[in-house]
Amino acid sequence: GRKEVQSFLISNALFWLDRYHVDGLRVDAVASMLYLDYGRREGEWIPNRYGGRENIEAIEFLRRMNAEVYQHYPDVQTIAEESTAWPMVSRPTYVGGLGFGLKWDMGWMHDTLLYMQNDPIYRRYHHDKLTFRMIYAFHENFVLPLSHDEVVYGKGSLIGKMPGDDWQKFANLRVMYGYMYAQPAKKLLFMGGEFGQWAEWAHDGSLSWHLIDYPPHQGLLRWVEDLNRVYRSERALHELDCDPAGFEWIDCNDADSSVLSLVRKSRSAEETVLVVCNFTPVPRLNYRVGAPRGGFWREILNSDATMYWGSGLGNMGGVEAVPVSVHGRPYSLTLTLPPLAAVFFKPA
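Above: the chain's sequence. Below: its structure in token form.
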């Protein structure tokens, strides 16, 4: 709570933005600052002046820090790694929020990695791990983090967490990234994850760059490159990332097939992206999903394409929607869902 300490910390934050031109600041372990009893037993902490456990000085500091950062650098992001249900972490200070631009969705990270580590034959029993976040997805401005915390201290690498043989491991990681980019939220992927580094991250060593000489790693890297390209070019995938108007489930209940289908939308009704993810190694032929409009739907991404080290199963460039109502939609598409794959479509 000392003003000189607050001034030093805020000056330090502004220094990194001013001198090193960083794009944002992530504040670690925000929960440990917000609660006086965090990690302490009864009798080891002193209540605030109102008798509560909230750290009033820390709250004031975080609000002041965010206000100063956004006043001087409105085009950066401050991101809170906050693991509790503290309200309005990413809401403006003038409405009572902490003023952060984004908040890490720790629940999504834990649930998704737990789901993906299951052998696909058992995933039908854990389908809710993929769908639960939509209950709270718009309470904050979330970012989906696959950070350094997931690949250190004996936790292994992302590719090492995936079940199956090498082909299935890479296919699992590709479909997980596809599902991540289809979800409404900003994305964070720690270095090494983009090409499937086998070793967990070590701060005193370099990444295993030599792996990109091998086709499986080349394919994964190209998949992440194309996901980033399409995410940036398709407004439906990013414009309403923190707005419920930008997302609709088509079918989130097909647990037996371990398939999810959804629609992402932009502010313009004409811009729509339809995504279907198959989380099993079983190809789904003649799989029908509802579509919001008729006409030809072009396949713009398919994680099972051979250039990503997939099997090459797909929809021959796209599918014509027919006026058969499915999933409460006026039209439907009959798709080929490749094994362990995500496919993205947009109206032609």
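Residues 244-347 form a domain with the Immunoglobulin-like fold (CATH 2.60.40.1180).
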